[in-house]
Automatic annotation (TrEMBL):
Coiled coil: none annotated. Keywords: Kinase, Transferase. This is GHMP kinase N-terminal domain-containing protein. The keyword Metal-binding does not apply. It comes from Cystobacter fuscus. Pfam families: GHMP_kinases_N. It comes from the Bacteria. GO terms for molecular function: ATP binding; kinase activity.
Amino acid sequence: MEAKTPGRPPARAEHLERGEHATTTRTGYGSSIAHHGEILQGVFELSPGQLERALVTLPCPLFSAHAVFTPDDSGTLALEPYWKVKARLAAQTTLAAHGLEHKGGRLVVKSEIPIRWGLGSSTSDVIATIIAVADAFSLLLQPEQIASLAVDAEAASDSLMFGDRTVLFAHRRGYVVEELGGPLPPLDVLGFNTDPTGKGVDTVEFAPARYNRSEIEMLQPLPGLLRRALREGDPRGVGRVATASARINQRHLPIPRFDALLALAETVHSVGLQVAHSGTVVGLLFDANDARKSAGIQKARTLLRESGIEQTWHFRT
């Protein structure tokens, strides 16, 4: 499969005109699963001299966020809980984008996603809110529109709104750099948090990674390798890309005992290791169809426990 020509991000107004509008109002509902960091993240040279920050998200259905929006004509927005300010901004942005800035209402956001671990707690809040506000006004938004609104609301967003589509996503500009060719092959993921304090990373304060020329050159072939792995349904290919991206990220947000985790991954027949590039969670990737998978996951749990990591979780892509 040939690489697709990277597109330019559409103008916001043109982007949003594609939504289908209706005048009915009601209580709106929205939800979003979490993610588990990224398979790939970095800076990529789209054409000579044109660099773009982009990522490939690893969705995680274990955790989710839910939003309920009840509109009214007050012109003010009541938020529960009050501290989910990015959700408030997402609601205001969505209303304004559709000429509804004069509307108000009550927004309730509930989430079991741990914060600051790199599981996408704020992105999931934002996406759930955008969907709930759209639902309240019978607005049918495409994933590209939700992506644009999400980046407007929180400055950077993972690509959860694209569902099973695996995309290289410009997370700070809100557009798809490249469709990579379909869903991820079946992977079992054993996740854990490498921060013993549980405090994680404040992404508001965390400065974007400054990749050097050598790192950008190492990142450049990875989307193509991932594209091929998806086309061939190759979990090992996905694992190699994830591990390479995790290695590059070590200079920018080091994972404790990273080399030991790589050795552990090999011992338990994991196909690779992925990380949250702006968080503290790590995932050991296993081929879901490998007969050694269950024993490998159990052994990994034992070895992690012996190293002081007690809490793990397991999901499948």
